[in-house]
Each structure stands twice: as C-alpha cells, then as structure tokens.
Design brief:
about 190 residues, 2 domains, two-stranded antiparallel sheet, 6 helices, elongated
Length: about 190
C-alpha cells in the first residue's frame, strides 16, 4: 500500500527540490505532462524548435497523456479528472488479496513517472557514426517525434547509461567506453590508457 501511495504522490503532488539551500516546489509530474501537450498545441510546431514538420502536438507527450488518462479511468471510472481519480485510488480500501493489483498499479505509475521525466528533461543523446562492433550495422531508421521515418546512426550514446546499438540492442555500459573507443578505431583521450 505504501508503494501505491508513493507512486500516486510522485505523479500528482508538487515536485520539491533543494536549490541553493532553499526548498522549491514545481508543478506535479502530471501537470508538467499536461503543460508539454498544451504548449505544443499552442505553438503548433510539435513542441520542438526548428521542427521539420508541423504537427498539432508533441506526439510522445500526447500519447503518454492519453495512455495515462485512459488507464486511470479504467481503475476508477468516477471522478472529474485523472488527478481526482488517482486520489480516489490511493484512498480506496484495499484487501490483502489485492497485493498483486496494487503492485501492478504502482509499477505503471512509476513507469509513467520515468517517461514524463524523460520528456520534461530528456537525457543527452549522442550518436556515434561507426558500425556496431556486435552486428556491423551503421545506420537504422527510426520514427521522429512527428512519426516520420528518419535515418540515424545505429550507435546511440547516453553518457550516464551506456552506448546501445539501435539495430541489435547490444549495450556497452559507461565503464566500457574506452574499450569501445579502441574497438571502433577512435583515438583514446590523451593520457588515458587501457
């Protein structure tokens, strides 16, 4: 039950962070998601500066909001809004035999919180223009934010997470970056040896 309370609170309570010795509050994750969708709708550019195509909304944010709203509505049909429905779910009387249901709902809310965080503050992504050492693929086609198929390098690097091949999904964790650099034939940083 505590996990569900925490997951609901993480979704609908204001986000609190320490900054320069002061506790600051930002809108809840759900409000931030709604704001992303609304700003993209008002701008009409897909939510991106210099967008290649015009679209009515930033599709990943809109898709996530629709998914979240629809699923929460199935959990608790009464309620005027997703926030009120989530409050009702957290306040409901649960039985010991509901543990699996509680875990499923908590896991869904936690996963949505991660996705919202990635939309609000996406991790920096870089691409390595080299063939994947595991499968040999150099480029792949992926859908961009507006659903267009675009060609990108197969090796995607997220500094804190690792380098992943988008073709075969082989991943090199950050501690293997120097080895990957050597395998790809790139020069290692000066003064660094393997």
């Amino acid at each position: 039950m505590d996990r569900l309370y925490a997951a609901v609170a993480a979704m609908i309570d204001p986000v609190k962070e320490w900054h320069d010795g002061r506790l600051l509050a930002a809108p809840s994750l759900y409000e931030q998601l709604c704001d992303l969708v609304e700003r993209a709708r008002r701008r009409g550019d897909g939510g991106r500066v210099g967008a290649s195509s015009r679209s009515p909304a930033w599709w990943p944010a809109l898709d996530l909001k629709i998914e979240l709203d629809d699923e929460v509505r199935t959990w608790h049909p009464q309620g005027a809004s997703t926030v009120k429905r989530l409050r009702e779910v957290a306040a409901a009387k649960w039985r010991p035999q509901d543990c699996d249901t509680l875990d499923e709902k908590s896991a869904r809310l936690e996963a949505w919180a991660v996705k919202i965080g990635e939309l609000v503050d996406p991790p920096p992504r870089k691409y390595v223009k080299a063939a994947c050492p595991a499968c040999g693929v150099k480029t792949v086609y992926r859908q961009n934010d507006v659903g267009e198929s675009v060609r990108v390098p197969a090796l995607q690097l997220i500094p804190d997470e690792g380098c992943t091949c988008l073709a075969c999904t082989h991943t090199w964790p950050p501690e293997h970056y120097l080895l990957l650099c050597k395998v790809l034939g790139f020069d290692t940083p000066e003064g660094v040896t393997l």
